[in-house]
Amino acid sequence: MALMITDECINCDVCEPECPNDAIYMGAEFYEIDPHKCTECVGHFDEPQCVQVCPVACIPINPAHVESRETLWQKFERLAPAKAKAAAAEPPAPSAGA
Predict the structure, then answer these.
(1) In this predicted structure, what is the pLDDT of residue 94?
(2) Which in 23, 37, 43, 91 has the greatest CB count within 10 A?
(3) pLDDT score at 96
(4) Closest by alpha carbon to 76, among 47, 31, 38?
(5) Residue 24: in which H helix or E strand, if any?
(6) pTM of the entire structure?
(7) 58 and 9 Cβ atoms separated by less than 8 Å
């Protein structure tokens, strides 16, 4: 059950950094959630973090992407190694004192 962000989004920027799967991104008018990356935080947290921090409660379940908890877990298992590999390939951030 991937989540979605409705047009009630006020673009407050609090949800995007909370997503452990990098599924949230700025769309044409407001933030959007990539249903192929959204696991509703299964594998990371007990509850979706974006829903927890959203001040306008505009993040419901996406009816076009209804998935079982087992399916969400399988998606997490598929995404986690890919994200770890991508993070390892990133150059180190410059130090603050440099």
Answers:
(1) 66
(2) 23
(3) 58
(4) 38
(5) strand 24-26
(6) 0.82
(7) yes
Instruction: Supply 31's token pair.
Output: 């933030």
d(CA 94, CA 72): 35
In order, the DSSP letters of 30-86 are SEEE-TTT--TTTTT-SS-HHHHH-TT----B-TTS---HHHHHHHHHHHHHHHHHH
Q: Residue 72 and residue 37: Cα distance in Å, rounded?
A: 10
Label residue 28 exposed, middle or buried (CB < 10 Å: 0-12, 13-18, 19+).
exposed
* Among candidate residues 30, 41, 24, 33, the one with its CA nearest the CA of residue 76: 41
